[in-house]
Amino acid sequence: MTRRYNFCAGPAALPTPVLERAREELLDYRGRGLSVMEMSHRSPEFTAIAEAAEANLRTLLRIPDNYRVLFMQGGATMQFACVPLNLLGGGGTPNYLDTGIWSGKAIKEADHLAGSHLAASSRAGGYVDVPASDRIALSADAAYLHYCHNETIGGLAYDYVPDVAVPLVCDMSSSILSAPLDVSRFGVIYAGAQKNIGPAGLTLVIVRDDLLGRALPQTPSLLDWKVYADNASMINTPPTYAWYLAGLVFEWLKDDIGGLEAMAAINRRKAATLYDAIETSDFYSNPIAPANRSLMNVPFVLADEALNDTFLGEAEAAGLLNLRGHRSVGGMRASLYNAVGQQAVEALVAFMGDFEQRHG
Ligand SMILES: *Cc1c(COP(=O)(O)O)cnc(C)c1O
User: Fold this and answer.
1) I need a surface site. Which of 217, 255, 315, 345 has the fewest CB within 10 A?
2) pLDDT digits over 186-207, tens only?
3) Which ranges in the chain are annotated with CATH 3.40.640.10?
4) Can you tell me the distance from the alpha carbon of 241 to that of 238, in angstroms, rounded to the nearest whole number?
C-alpha cells in the first residue's frame, strides 16, 4: 500500500498513525466487541471518548475554564448563520472584516439575517493582504467583530489579532491547531473539522460562557449554542465517529508531535520550503503580501497558464494529489495542513523544479 501526498484543501489529509489506529479499532473498539460507529452516543464508552477528546483539545489550546467547547454539525457554513443568531439577542449591529471568499460568505449570511457593518476590507487591493489594524472602524453599536483568520482560497492570513472592545468572533476552519493560540482574546472561535481536526461532519465551536444565552428568540434549538452547552453537545445524535477520529487527532498532536509549539515549528518550515521555491523561480508566483502569506494554503500560478493541465497531470503521476486551485480562482494551491509532512513539501518542490526545467 502506498499513501500518496495529499494537498487537498478539504476534506484534507489525516495523519497516517491516526488512520492506522482507527483501522486497528474499527471492528472491535478496545475489547468491547463493536465499532465506535455502532455505539450509542449515550453509552459510557462513547461518553468517555467524547470527554477525552474535549480534555485533550483543552490541553492543546490551553482553553480557559470560562470557555465552552461545542461539538456541532453543519460545517463552518452553518456557523455563518449561528454567529448572528446567537449574538444579536441583545441588539446591536454585526461588524465584519472582509478579506476574501470565506469572510464574504459569512458577511452575506449576516446581511440576510440582520444587516451588517463592514469594519474594514482588503477588496480594493485585490485581497492580497489583510486590513491594517488601524483601519478597523467599528460601528457605534457593534455587537461583535467577525473575521476569518486564514482565507483558505486566497491563501492569506492575519499576522495580528484585532484588538477591539466588542466580542471577537473568528472563523479558524483552516488554521486552528496549526499553532498555539491565546483563546482568551476571543469571544467565539469556530472551525469545520475537515481541514485540521478530523473528517467532515463535525464542527468545533469554542465560546466564552458569558456569550451564551444571547440568541435571537427565533433561533432554532439545533442552532443555539446554549442548548449544546447545556446538553454536552448531545441534544440529538452527534457525529460520533467524526468526534472519535478528532479525538485521535488531538492525541496525535499532543503525544506524537508534542503540542502546538512543536506543530507550529514544523508548519513554519514546511511553508518556508514552498514559498522559497516559488520566490526563487521566475516560473511560479504567489501574489500575497509576504507578511500575510498563509502557512496552510499556498496558491501559486505558472508563468504559462496553458501548462496548468500538464502540471496537474504530471504531479498526479508523481504521487502529488489535489493541487488544482479553487474553481473560483484557478491556478494551483497546495494545502499544507498539520497532517502534510515536510517530506511531502520537499517532494512537491522537487517536482516543481523538475517541471520548470522541462517546460519553463
Ligand atoms: C472550508 C471553510 C469553510 C466552509 O466549511 P464547511 O465545513 O464546508 O461549511 C468556511 N471557512 C473557511 C475558512 C474554510 O476554510
Assistant:
1) 217
2) 999 999 999 999 999 999 999 9
3) 17-257
4) 9
